[in-house]
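Good day; I would like, with your permission, to put a structural problem before you. What I wish to show you is a protein chain and, alongside it, a tokenised description of its three-dimensional fold. Thank you for your consideration; the sequence and its tokens are set out here:
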Amino acid sequence: MLFGIPLLSLIIWLPIMVGIAVFATGGDRNAPLARWIALVGSILGLMVAIPLYTGFDATASAMQFVEHRAWIERFNINYHLGVDGISMPLILLNCFITPLVVIAGWKVIQDRVAQYMGAFLIMSGIVNGVFSSLDAILFYVFWEASLIPMFLIIGIWGGPNRVYAAIKFFLYTLLGSLLMLIAFIYLYQASGGSFSIEDYHQLPIAFTPQILIFIAFLLAFAVKVPMWPVHTWLPDAHVEAPTGGSVLLAAILLKLGGYGFLRFSMPITPDASQYLSGMMIALSLIAVVYIGLIALMQVDMKKLIAYSSVAHMGFVTLGFFLFNAYGVEGAMVQMISHGFISAAMFLCVGVLYDRLHSRQIADYGGVVNKMPIFAAFFMLFAMANAGLPGTSGFVGEFMVIMGAVKVNFWYAFLAATTLIFGAAYTLWMYKRVIFGAVANPAVEKLEDISRREFALLAILAITVLWIGVYPYPLTEVMHTTVENLLVHVSQSKL
């Protein structure tokens, strides 16, 4: 609560209700009205979320802005919400990205405009519900509900193979989630009839059940991250999704898996987390190195950035299972940073696709001659994706590498190869698309970015540089929560 206002409920249900209002505008004859309602609603959602940061006590590890009401009393299921230093930055990221997605689709989407805009707003509210739920069943409802808008966004507004990509995305994430539900039911029985996530954090669980619960959570969260080898749905989903869908998928939905490890796997099964940390680190390093090499081979810009996301999220899971403050905080910064950088990269590809209707690197070349302002923005985001110091892409990776050095030099060495591979695949793509002579007659007709596109890319550029130069406001709010989590995990029996 803030001044008696149920802030978290407002952050969840305001976008959902505005999304329903956008649906109600009807067919495409009312498309301008649908766009404006969606934009105003998404900006209101961001404004409502800002007090989460300004009113947040960074020195407290307990949940804040807590709301608690009975929901299904027979099974002790409650409408229980709250945020800490882990979930609050992710909610802000989600609320920040939503208006950008609405603006990005302003002119590009001409069919079923109301349904498109409404789906993104409803998705925004649902994701806020995932990040703020403190009841396991409430969390599960929001978690599963998040599949529906993205399934529709890919399946309706996607590319030629959109149905295949949408079904693959849906099945991968759904099957993993079912095991998570089984784990929740076990914890409900073990806790004497509670679905409170905070109760689970204090629950003494024997080692073998911890291992089984950890694996159940792993299959749900690893698919969402996605970790190698359950990452194959992501490139297909990105390639077929519209630009806004790719932005939301990379910037927000991948973070649900990372958040799950911090909220469930590590605090509920601390012994299993430490026992299986070697396996998690190995899978993470495979993602960093192997997927980085796969990205080098791509000829489709979207697919290259999709594989880049898998590699960068490998840094996130690596940082979590180092069990030190540098690693976990660095992984959190990496999640937030990746949200901005991946959004910017997909928007840049979308700018080119809207003009030339091709994502193939070979179809471009010499774009800087016709789009110099766009080329400058694209250069900044490419450098950030490669981890250039002074950009947000460097901060998280540097902190995770520092954390890895404390554990094992070779972990740090292998993780640091992402700075080489990231520069290789990102800058090689940039060189082939942007520099050189104009080889394609269609490129000769390109026009530089519009004021709308300039505003989108400028906002993201400022954010990427701000976090890169001054990350303290971000690391400050998560530090106490992370320290408390690490103390809890360190008190395990191993």
